[in-house]
Write the structure tokens for this entry.
Amino acid sequence: MVKNVLFLTGVLLFFFLGSQEGWSETVEVKIIKSTFIPTVIKIKKGDTIRWVNTEELLHTVTSGKAPDPDKKFHAAYVKKEFEVTLDKEGFYDYFCELHQAVMRGVVIVRPAASGD
Ligand SMILES: [Cu+2]
């Protein structure tokens, strides 16, 4: 009986872990000393990015090439966190409107199926 339960748990765990490749994830970018870390982040289509502001200073997370927002996403004055789910592949430049000379980042969204 106990053996059967263990076996079943093992099988379930196998499928659970094995199928995770295709799942959506939430990936974190931290704002530390007015820098997006990591500056370039790669995610899968459908993943969510969460920007976490670790400092007292206010920042924005604004899509586009500084100083021109392209309105794909925008968070004015991120005090703690801001999340965006990206469903389209491609390169997304973004910046902080308040510190645009130094605060810039890139999100690369790759197809959900590709593994790397
Ligand atoms: Cu800023």
Notes: Residues 34, 59, 96, 98-99, 103 surround copper (II) ion (CB under 6 Å). Residues 2-18 form the longest helix (17 residues). Residues 60 and 76 are 5 Å apart (CA to CA). The mean pLDDT is 88.
